[in-house]
Amino acid sequence: MKLTDLKDKNSQEVQNLLNIKNRANIVEKFISLGLPDKKSESYRYFDIEKLLSPSYQTLEYVPKTIHPADTIEIVDGVVTSAPEGMRIYYEACEVIDKEHFDPLYYLGHLLSPITIKIEVDGDAQLEIVHRYTQSNTLIAYRIVLYNQANRHATLYESFITEDIENTLVLYGYDMHIAQDSTLRVVKMQSMQDHRYSMIASHKVNVGKNAHAILKSFDIGGDQALQLLKVELDTHAYIDAGHLLYLNAASKRGIISQIVHRGEHSQSKQEAKTILDGHARGIFDALITVKPTARYTKASQNSKAILLHKNAYMIAKPQLEIDIDELEASHGATTGQLDEKQLFYLQSRGISYSEARKILVLAFANTLIDTIKDSRHQERIKSDFEKVFLKAEDTL
Amino acid sequence: MSMMKIENLQATIGDKQILKGLNLELEAGKVHAIMGPNGAGKSTLSKALVGHYDVKITGGKILYKGKVINDMDAQERALEGIFLSFQHPVEIPGVNNAYFLRTALNAKRKHEGKEALNAADFLRLMKSHLEMLGMKSDMISRSLNEGFSGGEKKRNEILQMLILEPDVIILDEIDSGLDIDALRAVSEGINKMKDGKRTFLVITHYSRILDYIKPDYIHVLKEGRIIKTAGAELVAKLEADGYDAIEEA
After folding, report:
1. Taking CA atoms, what residue in A is nearest to B91?
2. Cβ of B90 and A344 within 8 Å?
3. Do residues B187 and B17 lie in contact, with contact meaning Cβ atoms separated by under 8 Å?
4. How large a percentage of chain B has pLDDT more than 90?
5. Å from A377 to nearest chain B CA?
6. Is the pLDDT of residue A395 over 70?
7. Which helix or strand (DSSP H or E) is residue B61 part of?
């Protein structure tokens, strides 16, 4: 399958090409936004055409027996194992956002008419491991996730590949965070060049008085984009943190839209990016405050460190506000390692290269330390240090 | 015996000539105090001695233990035993204080051909000094200088000095921002380091710190040069008459 074949096609042609029926509304949404290219707002810094133009193999998504295990494992888009008693179903997605900004959100739904539905019980701690085993393949799947009201669940997400190359993964969540609940999602994704690229297009609904804590740790190479749309109900809260460490010629980033719909809703978004080599980092984030969202508090901040003269950061924090009764702030800084801090460490006998490592790890740690579970915190630190120190050693 | 000798030192910060032919000899085992008005070049001198990137040496030389160190970088100078207690220590969020200090100590031990200190032994060492300086034990795990009060920052500088055991200790305005208790604790830490071999260079505006750290020599720095050197008795004259009354010898 070649995704560029979908370009400038009408509804019937898209349905024929994707071999789908009865999904005219989603097809129309996809067509109205158009298959992204280098002129598309959300993808203009990302080189999306390179990912859409190859001819990929496609997969048959046939549900398999789910074996009991400690973690939920999803292999090439199919659940293969999960903790016993876990409620996992294959179903059509009941609630699809009608106003998502990302065309690939709709394409993802068209390619995945049957989604993996996970109902999180109580105060669970879940781990989802995504495994990719196929080269030159388009792996498309979506997950619909519900938690329970008044409960506080945590989801850890990680990604593993076998020795594959040139695969494109289109996946994403439709998350429904129930009233008065908390859902923490911690995503750790370490990528190596040329194995796979990823477009992850999410929609998160945060219910009344609910808290969403979304932390993503994206390190290494290759091309990946996370597109996130969040809607906040009354007194809903989101704390979104993104750490990006990129090296070589990778292009990765986050495009987000946080929509405050309810009164007294709060959002806090923080991106920390470290770029080496020819890497390009993207933080293109919009916070929208609707007229119904009086007394909103919103803040967003991006800090980026460039370790190499050829590294490049695109930081676009934006606020779109329709009311006066709110507190909002945003900011972005991009620079090199702090000269004063480097000197301070050197003045105590620490070498320049060691001081540089200490400062980069410290910059990352300020976000990693927000992970409550010490085992996962250590795992993220260790994965980050492994990739960073390996890249440093090759300098 | 001379620990450090500064001959005709000229230095600039940006385009501005700050040090204009400064001569100074620091003896081993002695406490030297440098006093002078604002803008005299006191902090520039301390920066020049530790190889700060702001300062460009345009003439003269700095001899340390008989070796010219003009071109030596900051890390090497530190490993060779030169320590600056900063006037305004920088905050480094995310760097654990103990981790930083152990890394620094082990870099020095490696330089001296000694084995690295393991975490447990280091922690014992750090705790013993913390107690002496009246510092809280959470200083071990806090980020380096982040959110520290002025007094905590200065105590942390002294903690580093005690652990790294340098040979030349430059104290740049160590008393600024300290209350009486903190000043006493910091001075106690400094006095503890006196062993008849180490050299101290106390840079200060005011004589208050010199009530706690007794100097052997007072040097008056004015307009980028040392204009007078005398014994501790000079402090009283400076207090009484001010810097304007001092004329170049």
Report:
1. A341
2. yes
3. no
4. 75
5. 14
6. no
7. strand B55-64
pLDDT in tens, B54-99: 999 999 999 999 999 999 999 999 999 999 999 999 999 989 999 9
CATH of the domain at B114: 3.40.50.300
DSSP assigned state of B89: P
**Cβ contacts (< 8 Å) between B84 and chain A: which residues?**
347
CA distances from B225 to B22, B37, B44, B229 (A): 5, 12, 11, 11
The minimum CA-CA distance between B33 and chain A, rounded to whole Å, is 21
Can you give the pLDDT at residue B249? Answer: 62
Asked if A348's CB is within 8 angstroms of B160's CB, the reply is: yes
- Which pLDDT belongs to residue B179? 86
State how many domains chain B has: 1
Query: Is pLDDT of A305 > 80?
Result: yes
Average pLDDT score, chain B? 93
Mean pLDDT (chain A, rounded): 94
Q: Are strands B55-64 and B2-13 parallel, antiparallel or unpaired?
A: antiparallel
Segment holding A383, helix H or strand E: helix A374-393
Domain that holds residue B24: 2-245
The model's pLDDT over A190-219, given as tens digits with 9 standing for 90+, comes to 988 778 999 999 999 999 999 999 999 999
The span from the CA of A9 to the CA of A221, in Å, is 33
Task: Give the CA dihedral A287, A288, A293, A294, nearest 10 degrees.
Answer: 70
Option in B78, B94, B111 nearest A348 (CB)? B78
Cβ <8 Å between A344 and B73? no
Question: A363 — contact with chain B (CB < 8 Å)?
Answer: yes
- What phi and psi, each to the nearest 5 degrees, are found at residue B170? -105, 120
In SS3 terms, B144-194 reads as ECCCCCHHHHHHHHHHHHHHHCCCEEEEECCCCCCCHHHHHHHHHHHHHCC
- Interchain CB contact of A358 with B (< 8 Å): yes
- pTM for the model stands at 0.87
Pick among B92, B99, B100 to test the A interface (most A CBs inside 10 A)? B92
H or E element: which one contains B239?
helix B234-241
Among B13, B11, B1, which residue's Cα sits nearest to residue B62?
B11
pLDDT band at B248 (very low <50, low <70, confident <90, very high): low
A349: nearest CB among B52, B108, B143:
B108
Task: Give chain A positions within 8 Å (CB) of B108.
Answer: 349
Does B234 lie at the interface with A, CB-CB under 8 angstroms? no
Distance of residue A227 Cα from the nearest chain B Cα, in angstroms: 28
Contacts of A338 in chain B (CB under 8 A): 90
Query: Per the CB < 8 Å rule, is B86 touching A344?
Result: yes
